């Protein structure tokens, strides 16, 4: 339940924050990396119900955030969530690999859709968004890889 609440709350919070202070788009872009990790954890925990979590976050965003930001967010998240869902559904690789593969495929699409719809073409913002999202999931991947490589203790 913690992953679910953190995911929905983060989507809502970032959309609201972006609506209040769009000039801090670089800050919000860095924060977005966390949402991708949370989304993957919800996918692992709840499977196909992760789509319901995205819907709940979307509805709340439309109620509390700028509708234009919410529309860009939901469009980008919907497409990237479907990519993520496809990776988690089709591949049978270890979880850490599915996390990274889904991010490598969905993060560029999400970034392009979101900022493109908002008319934000600043390369620094796009780079920060891509880097933070991929850095976050890469850090999780490395931790999971290191953890699985450790010998079991009795």
Automatic annotation (TrEMBL):
Keyword match Transmembrane: yes
Transmembrane segments: 46-64, 99-118, 124-144
Highest taxon of the lineage: Bacteria
Keyword tags: Membrane, Transmembrane, Transmembrane helix
UniProt name for this protein: PreQ0 transporter
């Amino acid at each position: 339940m913690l992953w679910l609440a953190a995911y929905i709350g983060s989507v809502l919070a970032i959309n609201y924050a972006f609506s209040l202070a769009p000039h801090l788009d670089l800050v919000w872009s860095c924060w977005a990396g966390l949402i991708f990790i949370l989304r993957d954890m919800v996918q692992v925990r709840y499977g196909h119900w992760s789509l319901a979590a995205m819907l709940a976050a979307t509805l709340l965003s439309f109620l509390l955030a700028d509708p234009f930001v919410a529309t860009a967010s939901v469009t980008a998240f919907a497409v990237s969530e479907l990519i993520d869902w496809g990776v988690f559904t089709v591949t049978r690789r270890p979880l850490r690999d599915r996390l990274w593969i889904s991010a490598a495929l969905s993060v560029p699409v999400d970034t392009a859709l979101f900022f493109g719809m908002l008319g934000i073409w600043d390369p620094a913002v796009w780079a920060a968004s891509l880097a933070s999202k991929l850095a976050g999931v890469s850090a999780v991947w490395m931790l999971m890889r290191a953890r699985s490589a450790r010998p079991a203790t009795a």
